[in-house]
Amino acid sequence: MRRLNIITAIVFGLIGTIAAHYLATIIFVMPVLEGDAEAPSGLVWLLENRIAFTTMFGWVVGFMIGIGAFSGPVRWVLGKDLTDEEALFLAGKDQGIGRYFRFTTDHKVVGIQYLVITMVLLGVGGTLAMLIRTNLMTPDSAFLGPTTYNTLVGMHGIIMIVATIIMITGPFGNFILPIMIGARDMAFPRLNALSFWLIASVVPVLLSVPFIGGMPTGWTAYNPLADQAPIGMDGFAFTIIVFAISSAVAGANITTTAVKMRTRGMTWTRTPIFVFGVVASVGLAIPAFPTFMAAQVLSGLDRGVGTTFYDASGGGSGWLYANLFWLMGHPEVYVILIPALAALLELTPVFTRRPLFSFKAAVVAISGIVGLSILVWAHHMYISGWAPKLGGPFMLTTEIISIPTGLLFLVFIGTMWRGRIWTRLPMMAVYAMLWNFVIGGITGVYLSDIPADEAMHGSMFVTAHFHYTLMGAALTGTMGALVYWFPKMTGRMFDERLGKWGFWIAQVGFNVTFLGMFMVGFAGQPRRVFNYSEVFATGNFISTMGAYTIGIGMLIFMYVVISSWSRGAIASSNPWKAKTLEWQVPTPVPLENFDVLPIITSDPYGYGRPSPDLAATDQAPKEGASL
Amino acid sequence: MTDTAVHQTEDPPAPEPPGWKRPEVRSIALIWLVLTIVGECLVWIPSWLMGPSASTQMDDIKQTMTLFTAMSAPVAAVIWAIMIYSVARWRYTGDEPPEDDAPDFRTNSPVVLLWSILSGVLTLVVFIWGMLKIAAIPAAGGLAALPAGAMPPMVVEVTGNQWVWNFTYPELGNIQSDVLYLPLDRTTLFDVTSADVIHSFWIVEMGVKVDATPGQLTKTDVVPHSIGSFDVRCAELCGLLHAAMETQAKVVTQEEFDAWAQDKGAEVPIEPAAQEEGGA
Amino acid sequence: MTMTTEVHLHHDDPDTVGSRERFGVALLIVADIAFVFSLVFTYTYLRFLNTDGAWMPEGMVAAAPGETWLVTGAMILGLVVFALGARDLKAGKQPKFRRAAWIALVLSIIALVLQIQQMRNFNFSLGEKGYFAGTYSSSMMTLAGANAFHLTLTAIITLGMANRARLGKYNEPTSWQPRLATYWWLWVTISAVVVGLMTTFLVASPSLPSMGT
Ligand SMILES: [Cu+2]
């Protein structure tokens, strides 16, 4: 266990890959060859997919063995539980930088690991966006060609979806949340490491998709189109399956931590709103993502075993896929959005020096959105014809969501109302998010209403709309959250002087890009096209120029993240004078966060009082949690 | 302005009532009004961008767009007005957090209530509007009611193939075409399906859109009310040449249509439509 | 617990850890419920659609439910034995739990073998080698496979339980650990019963074939 790290993981992964490929070839192909000399082409196709799946499985299993993920379960079965010393080793004690490259259980290490992988994924996804927009600069561009273009659109989609799903709950849900609730670690530290390393193991599979035939389907991977696709599609399906397992594990872990491990005195009304947002997100993912996983399992079976779930001539239906997909697909939007908004809700009081406006409304809004989100999936299928009679009911549930969403807006502007608005970059992210999310929210109402969706479905309008919510609101929120928690996580201040240039350039570029896209969407340009009619030329050109502007802004921002992380000014433990617990512990945060667990007597929003009773102090009475 | 800290002694929910006479409320209301007026002046843009309409349901759709935009303007203006005002007048710049905190009121129940009710009302309006219009938007709500006294409807079978549309006229001796000919002012029923993967049959200027799903028949209908040539596209990613899956919908008079059908009828049967575009 | 030098490894008491782990396992079970729900939805929805009349194409014979219920019966028995054992453990009767765990392990393995046997006995491939004819056969095989996966996990967990009981790891204060395993046993058994009822009583499609292609 002590010698295992990312190098052994890769080595074992490669061994697993080769072994699995070899074994699969022997097991699946040999019997066919022995039978009749000529295997039917359909069977050959099944075997190819079966071998591809097995090979990917071999990689992930080998990788996970090599990183040491299985040693815990095996030792549990054998009855050899961890000693204290081993547990401390696993937590990364005294290992310096090396602990970031192994199966480390310390939630702060996992948080940083998630942060890095998120930034890598966003970087790759963003680069693909640049390529896509370059192709779309002119109507008849041959820059990428249809095959590459379709693959890159799908890759951009799924990479960004994965990245944005984990971008708040991964880095900040892991690093910040346990400290915020006064816990020494997550409820299940080893599951925590497992959730990260599962993603780390499957990212190479995902990135290999373009090199093993690509995928022509977009990230939605609709069947039966996916059924025709080359084995790149298997890479996609396999990625989703592993990612769903990772999310379930992370969801169970983070939810349990937040529900069961809040320190003494931290009642629900004294729990920071960010915790609600994260729990809503990962909690919602627990029931939602398995349906996506099931959709991909069935897809894999169709491709590799010869079932006919999505094959109409065999009794299957694309409507089945669409239902399973969107049962996950709509909650997933809120899985992405809610924690980012919650992070901004958390930091707004700090920068307005006001209590959070109507904490209750915020909690009701978050719960309302979560509750409703599982009842709205079929609004993605208004025009599919699968159940015309259900259009009305789904329109109702969808539109009711605008009420809790509206409440969230009220909480934001209520907290800003008459505040001392300290215009640091995190607060600027709140402003940018509000601007973007107003547009994203309103265009969402258009799409929720069947008459408008009839015209806009499947057009660039939809693309622009969800970028306004997922990028304009959620990613902007994440940038704010990163700058806000940067001092605690890295020990250094984020250089706002240059950083805000990157931030605002990206915001301006963003609005240019997607306003251009709204234009061509209204005019009737379909989504996911590599060429388009001359009438859409102007809007697309504007979009591409905007996209390059985003690119420049994001590059500056990324540069500032890296340069500040490596040589920024050393941060004090509480540079924003915030009141949540994570700012009350020293920076860098010690291994188990708190030597003595704090006791909470009020919520962390007590700004604007003569003698603010801090949420907690270091001098909290001794609490007997240590044995 | 009294934006320094107002310290309440006990019990947080000490309300600072909205106070309509407070200067910031008046200023924000003014900004809101200006933004709203500007917004209302721009409500024609979506409908304009959507181009000409070739059917009553497209008229309905464009009307919906304009209505929603008109309703959105004041809503967006509330948020943006407060954003503009707050950053202009309540701003604090400095490297250290401000010494003096802001007022510590924690909620304002009348405002929360009013806000919720207003958003509920807006939601209801949007929903009721949608339900009223569903009757005219056949793909989602079943077939539209036939206009009284119109000619009997004509059926067109639409088949999506990778990557061409194929139209069959079963009542006209199963003539086939890769360009959609439609007679003016006559109800056309579309029986839509697919031969391979999911496509989405979209006549842009007519507001007609319904998925073409293998193994299933989906139905929609339309009454074209303008003569001309309109765009048929595919609205669901269907593989390599999804972008090129386009053709024309030509709306002609009944006489011209009959003449075309007779011409076509002579050519029956036709092999599945080839890649070529343009008229027959 | 011995504490050494500056190393502070804090241990929470077993009750706290127990309630935490029960909560976490319940959430993981929720995820699995969602997965099984998806498969049940798939079965019922495709049966309802009967696209092209290919839910059960002509000549397709429904699987005899006997084998399904044999598997499920073994699971119910295993659940009962294991749950009673866990209760004994709570009452301090460690040897009784030990015996129950071993019996439950054997039962889970029997169920697994029967399940695999059923999958081998399915006579579904009417067409080309390696293909499934229709969605009934596809769904049946997938549901059986999911149950086999459940049983594999169950067997591993129960093996751990039995072995750890043998090593004397479980006593009254740590009896929550076997209780966690009981939750899992309970869920997989319920899922087998639900799927068994569905595949026994909802077989032929109620719908006429929709249009062919
Ligand atoms: Cu198409």
From TrEMBL, chain A:
Residues 99-601 form the Cytochrome oxidase subunit I profile domain. GO terms for molecular function: cytochrome-c oxidase activity; heme binding. PROSITE patterns: COX1. Keywords: Membrane, Transmembrane, Transmembrane helix. The chain crosses the membrane at residues 7-31, 51-70, 109-132, 152-181, 193-215, 235-252, 273-298, 318-345, 357-378, 390-413, 425-446, 466-486, 498-521, 541-562. One of its GO terms (biological process) is respiratory electron transport chain. InterPro entries: Cyt_c_oxase-like_su1_dom (IPR023616), Cyt_c_oxase-like_su1_sf (IPR036927), Cyt_C_Oxase_1 (IPR000883). Gene3D superfamilies: Cytochrome c oxidase-like, subunit I domain. One of its GO terms (cellular component) is membrane. This is Unannotated protein. It comes from freshwater metagenome. The lineage of its organism: unclassified sequences, metagenomes, ecological metagenomes.
Automatic annotation (TrEMBL), chain B:
One of its GO terms (molecular function) is oxidoreductase activity. One of its GO terms (biological process) is ATP synthesis coupled electron transport. Gene3D superfamilies: 1.10.287.90, Cupredoxins - blue copper proteins (2.60.40.420). Pfam families: COX2. Residues 1-20 are annotated as: Disordered. GO terms for cellular component: membrane. Keywords: Copper, Electron transport, Membrane, Metal-binding, Respiratory chain, Translocase, Transmembrane, Transmembrane helix, Transport. It is a multi-pass membrane protein. This is cytochrome-c oxidase.
TrEMBL record, chain C:
GO terms for molecular function: cytochrome-c oxidase activity. Residues 1-204 form the Heme-copper oxidase subunit III family profile domain. GO terms for cellular component: membrane. The chain crosses the membrane at residues 25-46, 66-85, 97-116, 136-162, 183-204. Keywords: Membrane, Transmembrane, Transmembrane helix. InterPro entries: Cyt_c_oxidase-like_su3 (IPR000298), Cyt_c_oxidase_su3-like_sf (IPR035973), Cyt_c_oxidase_su3_a-hlx (IPR013833). This is Unannotated protein. It is found in: Membrane. GO terms for biological process: respiratory electron transport chain. It is a multi-pass membrane protein. Its main location: membrane. PROSITE patterns: COX3 (PS50253).
